[in-house]
Amino acid sequence: MTSERVTQRQTAGQATDEANDEAGEEGYQRGLGNRQIQMIAIGGAIGTGLFLGAGKAIAKAGPSLILAYLIVGLIIFFIMRALGELLMYRPVSGSFSEYAREFLGPFFGYATGWTYWLFWVVTGITEVTAAATYVQYWWPSVPQWTSALVFTVVLYFVNLISVKLFGELEFWFSMVKVTAIIGMILIGIGVLTVGFSKAGPTASVSNLWAHGGFFPHGVGNTLMTLQIVVFAFLAVELVGVTAGESKDPKTVLPKAINTVPWRIGLFYIGALIIIMSVVPWTEFSAGHSPFVIAFARIGLPLGAGIVNFVVLTAALSSCNSGMYSTGRMLRDLALNGQGPKVFARLTKSGTPLIGTTVSAALMLIGVWINYEWPSNAFTYVVSFATISGMWAWIMILLAQLRYRAKVNRGELPASGFRMPGAPWTSWIALVFLGVVIVLMAIDPDARVSLYAAPVWAAIMIVSYFVLKARTPEVFAAKLPEERRESEKV
């Protein structure tokens, strides 16, 4: 009976989408087309973690960082395929909290929605911090907090646009990042093969093992960079949030998810191999973009300035995506009675104005962090963003396991985009995320996030039971179609 009801609801939802292509789920506008979703998926994986965080990781692990990216990249592919299987079963806005709510229970839906919202608030702070750091490349006398304030305010107003224009802006932001990385790879290949520029005489693939070996600081230090590498991939799941505003989610989203392997291979592993071949890893340091350093070492100061501009736009793009996500996650919580009703309001253009405004206001905390601890701001916020972002991945994997179990029992229809190797691949990914959390506890710099995590967990538990006592009907387990019917009231 459950399978029949869900199938009927999916069929009805599909017919509604075809009848009105512009009307998105729960009042959203279906303004995101194929090319925009593809570039959002690509651009979501190219941001601060690669352009700025890689500097510290290279200094810590040397060339073995390439192996760390390869391993984490495989795990990310498993996570995205798990998400894809759920999205094809039921593409909805606020997908992570919806799937956790359906397959794991009301508390997990509640905690996932608020934690993912917090993740993007903290990530927004991270990206603004990185952008402020890039500004100092041109104007070192400008305080970091000043730049962070200006960027936060400007991006808030930029985000108050229609989803179609948002998608268009993100398309071009991502296009700039993709073009820049491909350009850097091609120039690096030219240096290695032809030998032009100041770096020509010393540029060689042998730089990957000639300066202390492939593991210059030992395997242990390579393992300790995993949390930095994991942070670099946070936001790849953003395509799940766009499901309710995609014109053809069941066609577009699988294509976007299947690009994950070549994105990782080209933009991360390929770029790092070229950069550390052109410039010995010993010349990179924390707080400085390895791409900027590589161009300066080649002897193209103008090129370094261009790259710095590109990574600046990358950080601002990620922050812009954060504001997009937070408003929609707050609205999903409000529609399910798990957040203030005021967050459910939409503007005529389909923008959750109030939720976005509150989130942007909280991102101003990044201004204070940059004022108080300008040298450590990035490390602090990266650690906390990593642990909160990983919660969403864990929920995706657990929800997929429960969904697949119900499919195998004949309780739910099978997804048309199944995760390969499940359930083993799901468990492998979960164990890996557990290992990363343990490593974060060992790392003094990353440990700060684990201090905050129990506090946030306590807030979630207490607030959940308080709300449940006041409105028990809100937290009662519902079938997907029953929940969506209540959201329309």
Automatic annotation (TrEMBL):
<feature type="transmembrane region" description="Helical">
    <location>
        <begin position="103"/>
        <end position="125"/>
    </location>
</feature>
<feature type="transmembrane region" description="Helical">
    <location>
        <begin position="422"/>
        <end position="442"/>
    </location>
</feature>
<feature type="transmembrane region" description="Helical">
    <location>
        <begin position="260"/>
        <end position="279"/>
    </location>
</feature>
<feature type="region of interest" description="Disordered">
    <location>
        <begin position="1"/>
        <end position="26"/>
    </location>
</feature>
<dbReference type="Pfam" id="PF00324">
    <property type="entry name" value="AA_permease"/>
</dbReference>
<dbReference type="InterPro" id="IPR004841">
    <property type="entry name" value="AA-permease/SLC12A_dom"/>
</dbReference>
<keyword id="KW-0029">Amino-acid transport</keyword>
<dbReference type="InterPro" id="IPR004840">
    <property type="entry name" value="Amino_acid_permease_CS"/>
</dbReference>
<feature type="transmembrane region" description="Helical">
    <location>
        <begin position="65"/>
        <end position="83"/>
    </location>
</feature>
<feature type="transmembrane region" description="Helical">
    <location>
        <begin position="178"/>
        <end position="199"/>
    </location>
</feature>
<keyword id="KW-1003">Cell membrane</keyword>
<feature type="transmembrane region" description="Helical">
    <location>
        <begin position="291"/>
        <end position="316"/>
    </location>
</feature>
<feature type="transmembrane region" description="Helical">
    <location>
        <begin position="39"/>
        <end position="59"/>
    </location>
</feature>
<feature type="transmembrane region" description="Helical">
    <location>
        <begin position="353"/>
        <end position="371"/>
    </location>
</feature>
<feature type="domain" description="Amino acid permease/ SLC12A">
    <location>
        <begin position="37"/>
        <end position="469"/>
    </location>
</feature>
<feature type="transmembrane region" description="Helical">
    <location>
        <begin position="448"/>
        <end position="467"/>
    </location>
</feature>
<feature type="transmembrane region" description="Helical">
    <location>
        <begin position="145"/>
        <end position="166"/>
    </location>
</feature>
<feature type="transmembrane region" description="Helical">
    <location>
        <begin position="219"/>
        <end position="239"/>
    </location>
</feature>
<comment type="similarity">
    <text>Belongs to the amino acid-polyamine-organocation (APC) superfamily. Amino acid transporter (AAT) (TC 2.A.3.1) family.</text>
</comment>
<feature type="compositionally biased region" description="Polar residues">
    <location>
        <begin position="1"/>
        <end position="14"/>
    </location>
</feature>
<feature type="transmembrane region" description="Helical">
    <location>
        <begin position="377"/>
        <end position="401"/>
    </location>
</feature>
<keyword id="KW-0812">Transmembrane</keyword>
<keyword id="KW-0813">Transport</keyword>
<keyword id="KW-1133">Transmembrane helix</keyword>
<keyword id="KW-0472">Membrane</keyword>
<protein>
    <submittedName>
        <fullName>Amino acid permease</fullName>
    </submittedName>
</protein>
